[in-house]
Amino acid sequence: MKSVAVILSGCGVYDGSEIHESVLTMLSLSRLGADVSFFSPDESQHHVINHLNGEEKQEVRHIMEESARITRGNIQPLSKVDINKLDALIIPGGFGAAKNLCNFAYKGSDCEINKELLSVVREMHQQGKPMGFICISPVMVPKILGTPIKVTIGNDPVTAAQIEKMGGIHVECPVDDIVVDFKNKIVTTPAYMLAESLSQAEKGIDKLVRKILEMIE
């Protein structure tokens, strides 16, 4: 059975993991018989957003506790990742990827990456294990790996320019497709950077999951 880690960043599109993208990833992995484990940073999230009105709330929430809402409690701290037990890794989008896993939402191309995530992704890459990045999460790839890897966030010119500034290669991509950097085993898809419905997001995410599992040696 192929072992895949899904890394989450909270619960909710504006301050955590995008819930639809996370569940669609989990569904595809389940249908294809993968053994899935879940991880997230064990720390407070950057801030909390009221998803009804978009306003910031004056409260503190914990990334792993929030992520556990999506995984029905089945989640571990990023510090517990054992690379040797994993075949692949996938990171759904949502602003949590750009606020909690890194600070791209505020610093753009000058962003810093969560140190535990940085270590995990670099080691996975060194071992030649495939990784998938969904929605906004591909912005982290050039910053983490420091090589000109092909990724997509869809077609947003401002974000694409930031990726290029960090040394990445941005490839425009429709919502129902994926961009594959075969050399580096990195697969990306736009999902809700472009999706206008759950079914649109599902097509690209399912393609990404299938490609990731196909690339496992």
| Uncertain stretches | none
Supply the number of helical segments: 8
In the CATH scheme, the class would be Alpha Beta
Structural category = alpha/beta
The span between the termini is 12 Å
Within the largest sheet, what's the order of strands? 5-2-1-6-7-11-10
Name the overall outline.
Answer: globular
Named CATH topology: Rossmann fold
CATH superfamily: Class I glutamine amidotransferase (GATase) domain
User: Mean of residue pLDDT?
Assistant: 97
Q: How many distinct beta strands? A: 11
CATH-scheme architecture: 3-Layer(aba) Sandwich
H and E order: EHEEEHEEHHHEHEHEEEH
Helix content: 25-40%
Number of domains: 1
Radius of gyration: 15 Å
Summarize the biggest pleated sheet: 7 strands, mixed
**Residues in β-strands, percent:** 15-25%
Family: Belongs to the peptidase C56 family.
GO molecular function: lyase activity; transferase activity
Organism: Xenorhabdus hominickii
Keywords: Lyase, Transferase
